[in-house]
């Protein structure tokens, strides 16, 4: 069953309302209390992050992205003549670089064709001689090409290269209503289960532990189901940036 963030009309389909039930708080106890609502929004986001990272741990080739984002996890970066070092793009509009989770690919586009660069190995060396790079090195928050960019590289690739990435899920806001978590709907409830566990920990440790164990058990089932989705082909869910012609 899929859950929205909060629905005070149909209380059975809201994560907030599910938390109210799991914590025996009564209808409206969270949704009607500004402080508790913000507190549970944090708990729900924490539980959602755990499920998102569990999904990413299944297969490094999975390129899932939260459908609540309005852009795609593919950033164009302007190239600069004779420059080899470029800062990784910010993954979400909050301008927080920590939202960038994993680099998935670096590529150029020429005549509608993508050319992917390969990561440098221990045998590869950086050079100060400008040219058209074919390899890159990931260094903290930066991508470093094996050579600075030449005028020919800028001309060939229209002064732009692209970075594919994975990012944290789109966090719930306490003001949200119909937004849903961007994971399999059959596991939405367990976001509320883990959020309730976090809230109950200082109040009822036994119940909190029971909820947390339920969450961990379903987390394994969740990873199994994620692994079985379209398992016959590579997991590649990032949309193409090329025009459709």
Describe the structure.
The protein is an alpha+beta fold. The protein has two domains: 11-64 and 169-228, no CATH class; 74-167, no CATH class. It is built from five helices and eight strands, in the order H-H-E-E-E-E-E-E-E-H-E-H-H. A hairpin with a 2-residue loop joins strand 6 and strand 7. Helix 2 crosses helix 4 (189-200), helix 2 (34-58) packs across helix 5 (205-228) and helix 4 runs antiparallel to helix 5 (205-228). It is elongated. The two termini are 38 Å apart.
In short:
The protein is α+β, with helices and mostly antiparallel strands and 245 residues long.
What are the key terms here?
single chain, 245 residues, alpha+beta, 2 domains, 4-stranded antiparallel sheet, 4-stranded mixed sheet, 8 strands, elongated, disordered C terminus
Record the SSE blueprint.
Elements: H1 15-22, H2 34-58, E1 74-78, E2 85-87, E3 100-110, E4 113-116, E5 118-119, E6 135-139, E7 142-145, H3 151-156, E8 160-167, H4 189-200, H5 205-228
Parallel strand pairs: 5-6
Antiparallel strand pairs: 1-8, 2-7, 3-4, 3-8, 6-7
How many E strands? 8
Quaternary structure:
single chain
Q: Give the structural class.
A: alpha+beta
The topology string of helices and strands comes to HHEEEEEEEHEHH
Computed over alpha carbons, the radius of gyration is 22 Å
DSSP summary: helix tally = 5
The low-confidence runs, each spanning 5 or more residues with pLDDT under 50, are 231-245
Determine the fraction of residues in helical runs and give it as a percent range. 25-40%
N/C terminus separation = 38 Å
Mean pLDDT over all positions? 88
| Shape type | elongated
Number of domains: 2
What composes the largest sheet? 4 strands, antiparallel
| Major β-sheet strand ordering | 1-8-3-4
Which band does the percent of strand residues land in?
A: 15-25%
């Amino acid at each position: 069953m899929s859950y929205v963030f909060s629905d005070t009309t149909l209380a059975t389909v809201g994560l907030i309302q599910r938390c109210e039930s799991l914590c025996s708080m009564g209808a409206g106890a969270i949704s009607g209390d500004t402080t508790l609502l913000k507190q549970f929004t944090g708990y729900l986001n924490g539980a959602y992050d755990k499920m998102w990272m569990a999904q990413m741990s299944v297969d490094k080739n999975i390129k899932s992205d939260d459908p609540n984002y309005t852009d795609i996890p593919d950033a164009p970066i302007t190239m600069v003549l004779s420059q080899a070092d470029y800062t990784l793009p910010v993954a979400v509009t909050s301008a927080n670089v920590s939202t960038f989770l994993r680099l998935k690919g670096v590529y150029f586009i020429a005549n509608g064709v993508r050319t992917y660069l390969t990561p440098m190995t221990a045998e590869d060396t950086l050079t100060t001689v400008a040219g058209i790079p074919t390899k890159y090195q990931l260094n903290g928050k930066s991508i470093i090409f094996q050579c600075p960019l030449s005028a020919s590289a800028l001309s060939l690739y229209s002064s732009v290269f692209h970075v594919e990435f994975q990012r944290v899920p789109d966090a719930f806001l306490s003001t949200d209503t119909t937004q849903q978590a961007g994971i399999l709907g059959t596991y939405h409830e367990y976001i509320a289960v883990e959020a309730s566990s976090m809230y109950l920990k200082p109040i009822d440790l036994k119940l909190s532990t029971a909820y947390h164990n339920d969450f961990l058990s379903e987390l394994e089932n969740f990873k199994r189901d994620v692994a079985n989705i379209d398992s016959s082909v590579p997991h590649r869910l990032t949309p193409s940036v090329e025009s459709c012609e």
